[in-house]
Design brief:
The two termini are 25 Å apart. The protein has six helices and eight strands. Strand 6 and strand 7 form a beta hairpin. The relative contact order is 0.25. The strands form three sheets. It has a three-stranded antiparallel beta sheet. A three-stranded antiparallel beta sheet has the order 2-7-6. Helix 3 (81-91) packs antiparallel against helix 4 and helix 4 runs antiparallel to helix 5. By secondary structure, the protein is α+β, with helices and mostly antiparallel strands. It is elongated.
Length: 191
């Protein structure tokens, strides 16, 4: 699918901002996440606020406006406990495996099901993946049907962060100059 493809039904898309470098060329790649740089999981971070994206674009970067197809939020996806345990055994740093498996087991015992976001949150909180294995986590997330995570109220503001796990839902990327952004575009709203 071409990035320049026009999306007809805007009710099925979200418009969001990103600040960074070369997004138009590397958005389909799952790049390893550096330690401390994936607070909501390993993915492409987008925001509803232009000014936030602009801050991340400083120092030679670009501000981008993205059109993203609506998909499945990670909070709606459940997984089997054994799948989560297998992931932990294969990709998590050794010293964190046992406590993570205990946490996953306690979670499913308490709730009766295991949400995929629990595994992701544990990986973030334990900081238990090498950068290379953050790519494996992202693949695991996408293979289990989650496209993104929506986090509302970022930094105590009315700002929403969307972490894209599945790059296939990105339909359009536009580099945008500040002079081309109208006041009513500065803050996007998503449902």
């Amino acid at each position: 699918m071409k990035i320049s493809e026009v999306i007809e039904d805007v009710s099925q898309t979200m418009t969001l901002w990103h600040g960074g470098r070369n997004l138009q060329f590397n958005h389909m790649n799952m790049i390893p996440a550096k330690k401390g740089r994936w607070e909501y999981g390993p993915g492409l971070y987008l925001t509803t606020h232009y000014e936030t994206a602009r801050k991340y674009a400083k120092g030679g970067g670009t501000t981008f406006k993205l059109t993203v197809e609506k998909g499945t939020d990670i909070s709606k996806v459940t997984i089997e406990l054994q799948e989560a345990i297998d992931f932990v055994k294969r990709y998590v740093i050794g010293q964190y495996r046992k406590p993570m498996i205990e946490d996953l087991t306690n979670n499913i015992n308490r709730l009766g099901k295991l949400f995929l976001e629990v595994l992701v949150n544990l990986c973030v909180n334990y900081q238990c993946l090498s950068p290379k294995n953050t790519v494996e986590l992202r693949k695991f997330i996408v293979n289990h049907g989650a496209d993104y995570e929506i986090s509302r109220g970022f930094a105590g503001r009315a700002e929403t962060i969307v972490v894209i796990f599945n790059p296939a839902i990105i339909k359009k990327i536009e580099a945008v100059k500040a002079s081309d952004v109208s006041l009513n575009q500065m803050e996007q709203h998503i449902e």
